[in-house]
Design brief:
Helix 6 packs parallel to helix 9 and helix 21 runs parallel beside helix 23. Helices cover about 60% and strands about 0% of the residues. By secondary structure, the chain is mainly alpha-helical. It has a two-stranded antiparallel ribbon with strand order 1-2. The chain is built from 43 helices and six strands.
Length: about 950
Amino acid sequence: MKAKKKKRQDDFQKVKLKVGKKKPKADNATNTNFRSKGINLTEQLKRDTSGPTTHRQLGINDLLSQLHHYNANVKHSALLGLRELLSLNPSLLEQHLSRLLSEVAAVFTDKDSNVRVAATRVLRFIAQSVPAERVAPFFPLLSAHLSCAMTHIETGIQEDAMKVLDVLLEHYPALLAARPAVLLTNFLELISHKQSSGGAKKAQEAKTRTWALSVNPSRAVTSQQWRLSVLLRLGRFLQAVVEERPVEEGDLSVPAEGVFGSSGDGRLTPLHLIWEELAYSKVGVKVYEHSGAKPTPHSTFRLRPEVDTGPAVGESLDSAEAVQSFAATLVPLLLEVWVEASTSDCPWDTTEGAHLLPPDAMSVMFQVLSILQLLRKLAPQQEHQDALDAWFRKEYLGDFKQHFMKNFPYGTRDTPKHKKKVNLKRSKQTAVVPGLSVEPLALNITLCQVMVSLSQRQGLGRETDGDWLTPLRTFVRDTLSNEVKLSYRQLHMLLGTVWKMVFTQRSKTVTEDLLAAVYFYYQQRHLTLQTRSLLLSFYSKLYLQEQGHTHIARSKVLCRWLASLPVQLSQLGHRNPALSARLIQSIQAAASRGNKDLLSSLQTQACRLYDPQEGVVVLLPAESQQRMVQLLYFLPKMSQSLLANLSCCCTAGRISAGLAASLIRIVHLRSSLSGWSVGSQEVALQDVDYISFLFSTLTGFSSDELTSLQEAADDSALPPSPLSPLSLYTISLEQFTHHWDVVEEICHCLETLGSKSQCFDILQNGICKYLIKLGVVPDSMAAGLLRAVSRLLDLSVLPIEPVLRFLSQCCLSLLALLITLQQEAPADTNHKREAIWGACVSALNSVPRLLRMVLQMLHVGDLSEEELPQLGQILSMLLQHTPIQNEMLANAALLQEIIQHLTRYSRGATREQWLTDLLYCYSVTVAHGSSSHRGNLGLRDMY
């Protein structure tokens, strides 16, 4: 024992410190006498400088790798960094699109709500920047992650999945619509669950349901609000499926609810195909085998091979059976939702206010009806849609009448608003459904369209639908007749309902009742262009269905509408060219069918419509002008005042020359002188009025305009001179060209009347009565008269002396104008100079004694020194023109006398060039005439 105690003392000995001695070092003292060197790991501290970075110096690879971090804050900051980096450097989207989509989609199912919200924002930014064709290769992965989120066990992830779906529906509806089967099943699982049926519970009826509505008390919103949120997205998804389907030709020709709103005019238009764009286009193109020699209605050709998307491909909506199978699952659920919404917050003892609904219930019921409406449109083709409607009627008409029509029409219940403290956190949680407020009018109109689509055409052996269609018809009539303010979509749906009722009820009384309501709405003022065009299209296409439908034929409302169209067109004028064009189309369709009410109204308004100053025929665009000219063919009568307006329209230049020629031909065909008629169509104008119309159009100026030209001292009119007996009023080149084309058409019509001698006699009588006293003559009128006389002259009828004198004055004045134009602006007036020269030469060649009278009017002594070269140039041009050399030789003595006077009066030490040219041309012409036969004496005496 003593030994152990002593040893223990040895182990714990106390060191005694002495004054003045150094303190001994402890056994565990650290030796600080060492030197250290730093170690630098350069690769570890090196920043990624190969690409752009955020403000935290993080590149895209760093940010994408952080999305796999276990910490939610790191992932959230990484998503914020991605959005910052991509907004500053858009080029990174193209380089890293595959990784971006896969990594961002992977966090759709993250447990943290902030991460999911940030991922949705990044996805929206990508969707706004990248087109659908670039995302298409990676969209199956996006769709798979979306399906995982929609079917996740966590309710918060399901709610955020709706926001992801909103982004894809907004930017990539076509890609979503290409994979409908899986998403439709996901929609069903969001609001319902499959019922487990044991062996004893087997499906004994065709309508046995295997799905039932589900209730989840753990959600932050009520079950009704959640179903409204899901149904809203389901409706948008079905709408995308319907819109992205190829447009069949039959879709536009079937009298369905949207046919009267289509813009197709039945014309064939060329289609330019770009296959890269067509691959994701909404419009399908039929490709025929054997180069179209043996067209097949449904080609199996595809732009690209079908992608194997899994077992759900067989459940797509490309067949009527698939649509019917999906509807059989969805419609019972929708009926349950309807019943639940219609009975919520309902008084327990009374049924007086059963039709009044709270806003949430009304929104749910509106979505139910919208989805039912879209289900009908999912049918691939029109015959499938008819079969689907028949199936809906057979299976669910009783349920629809029981639930939908029970309290129709519906209204809004006024609920008092209590002031209470707002919980911001709670309000954020309940904001699952986007702001959607539904008016009772929209709900009732949609219900009308859904129910009327189930009605069948009345006939033998079919039950009548009058009992449940009566309240619908009453609602439609009252809505249209009570000046209710309707949107374009609501009016479109109401007109579709009216169309369906008219062709299913087939009753004269029902048709008149509904059309009168539509006409009352049509007469309202301040309707938009789109709305009024829709109403015009409805009435026009309904009128085209008149044949074969006795309940529409000779409808009083349609006749009243048709009679009002010309009045509306004249009042509207050019203030709205698009609406005027729709009116003209409707008028043309009825006029071609010979509607007496419309033709009578058109006859009354014709002078206003075809006014040369304020009429729509000169104020509207070219296409509408052409339709207005075509309407002239259907007019019963053409009065003198109307013909005067039409003549001014042709000559004023407000319509094109080609359209003016068409107008002249139509007037020509409606006259008895043309010798052409169709059926029992009567002659529209008298022969005297027709000849007056042609003569007025030939002159190009009305009597009032010619009178004002004589009185006005206009600088544009050339003063008369010995070389120009008439004062020519020069018009612009464009106006001259227009009038010259009109003159050619007038001459053609006069030549086809039969007897040229009679036409020429009438023409020279008009010239003698109205034109020979004029001192100022437009150059276009002078040239046009010479052209017409040369084409109509028959040697059996020679022109009388006053007419011949007036024509010679016109010819000489035009020749002087020709020299002036050649000197002033030779390049700009080529067409005008060619037309004037051709008219003068043709008249000198064909009209007897005209050249002699022109030469007799040339008094060299009266000419000024400046006019002598002009006369010399005129004579040189005439001598050089081969077709009139014989006529020139016939007047050789007179021509020689004129040249001698020119030589005598020409002053100067040296002979000028123009006189040298004239003498040379004269010598060549006389030498040619003396060396050959100059023609017989009869021809010389004639000219």
